[in-house]
Write a structure and sequence with these properties.
With 382 residues, the protein is α+β, with helices and mostly antiparallel strands. It has 2 domains: 207 residues, Gcn5-related N-acetyltransferase (GNAT) (Aminopeptidase), CATH 3.40.630.30; 140 residues, Gcn5-related N-acetyltransferase (GNAT) (Aminopeptidase), CATH 3.40.630.30. Helix content is 37%, strand content 26%. The chain is built from 11 helices and 15 strands. Strands 2-5-6-8-15-9-14-13-12-11-10 form an 11-stranded mixed sheet. Helix 7 packs across helix 10 and helix 8 crosses helix 9. It is globular. It starts with a strand and ends in an 8-residue tail after the last helix. The mean pLDDT is 95.
Length: 382
């Protein structure tokens, strides 16, 4: 097995790369998604993202099959990652050292769990994982960066990285799990009376406001519709005082290259489109990504971003719905606290010991939070 570092995914064919995605068909790991970010300038050195992707080839000289890969970036900051290490950066800089640049293994701007050690053949998984980890760490040492971070790793990759000596970090998000519900009413019946009544009231308020809901598949999204959705996206960014990581060209690219993996749910009122929410779909998981609105309607955010998504999952037999980062309000709407992981390689031994101590203390707090949230599950059986 022969590793290569490439700054761009352009030389790698979509066919080669997509064979590494695994059975869950995670949409964010598609070549079309990752290269789309690069091609449209969302990930670029000018924005603090420089590709340093690890490729593992069957033969020397980048020959034979692509056996594995790691989507990796040289970062000049920590924005767009959603695993927050700003305090680590400040502490290291107060000690008189440079935290940036660092390396991050991730899907940019996407807080969704998935493989980060991408592998062609499952029977070779252990050997390929070990080789990819070594290649990434060797490259980190060669660059002289302060650290290497693997973000939103799945369970298998987290275990492999921890076995290789990296520090595990645990957090949680709110995910919805399909318990074999026959329909949305069956889902509601599984909730406590208070939660069930609240959801019915919120859905009724949306319907009584005269709002109608339309789901448009990626293949049916016109350029005018993408412009409409992009305006909603920018409105949300502006409302929260955030920075727009994505541009209109990326959303257009998404519709052109991943039409079967995405759809947008729009809300209409009196002939006017007033809100929209974007979703991407894997083999058994629906991912909620961005939403925005041009008018205020009571509970519309919950309807578009959660209830429509849950209903879609039930009707299409999907196992899980991930609604993105943060949001304690999701608990009351059927989503439950679910662990997420990252793994961290720290170059300096002393700094590594300090980070390890921090993570140990943090993990106890996360465990207590999840126990507290678990005791307040919206489901009757809890």
């Amino acid at each position: 097995m022969f590793p290569q570092i490439t700054e761009s995914l352009a030389p790698v064919s979509a066919e080669q790369w997509n064979r590494l995605r695994g059975p869950d068909h995670n949409p964010f790991l598609r070549h079309e998604f990752l290269f789309g970010l690069e091609k449209t300038g969302c990930t670029s050195p000018a924005h603090g993202w420089s590709g340093q992707h690890v490729l593992l080839w069957e033969k020397p000289g980048n020959g034979g099959n692509l056996l594995g890969a790691v989507p990796m970036y040289r970062k000049a900051h920590s924005w767009g990652e959603y695993v927050f290490d700003h305090e680590w950066a400040r502490a290291w800089q107060r000690a008189g050292f440079l935290y940036y640049p660092k390396l991050s293994v991730c899907v940019p701007f996407t807080p969704a769990t998935g493989p980060r050690l991408l592998i062609r053949n499952p029977q070779d998984a252990d050997a390929v994982r070990q080789r990819l980890i070594k290649a990434a760490i060797d490259h980190a040492r060669a660059l002289g960066v302060s650290s290497l971070h693997w973000l939103f790793t799945d369970e298998a990759d987290t275990q492999a990285l921890e076995t290789a000596g990296l520090l595990r970090r645990t957090g949680f998000q709110y995910h919805w799990r399909n318990r074999g519900f026959a329909d949305f009413d069956d889902f509601l019946a599984s909730l406590s009376s208070k939660k069930r009544k609240n959801i019915r009231r919120e859905r009724r308020r949306v319907a009584e406001s005269g709002v109608t809901i339309t789901r448009i598949n990626g293949a049916e999204m016109t350029d005018a519709r993408w412009q409409q959705f992009f305006a909603f996206y920018l409105d949300t960014i502006d409302t929260h005082g955030a920075m727009p990581y994505l541009n209109l060209e990326f959303f257009r690219h998404l519709g052109q290259t991943m039409a079967d993996d995405c759809f947008v749910i729009f809300a209409e009122n009196k002939g006017r489109t007033v809100a929209g929410a974007l979703f991407l779909q894997g083999a058994d998981t629906l991912y909620g990504r961005y939403w925005g609105c041009a008018a205020d309607f009571h509970s519309l955010h919950f309807e578009l971003c959660y209830y429509q998504a849950i209903e879609y999952c039930i009707n299409n037999g999907l196992r899980r719905f991930e609604a993105g980062a943060q949001g304690h309000h999701k608990l009351a709407r059927g989503l439950e606290a679910t662990p997420i992981w990252s793994a961290h390689w720290i170059a300096d031994p002393g700094f590594r010991r300090a980070i390890a101590g921090f993570l140990e203390a943090e993990s106890h707090g996360v465990e207590q939070d999840m126990q507290w949230l678990g005791q307040r599950s919206p489901y009757k059986s809890a």
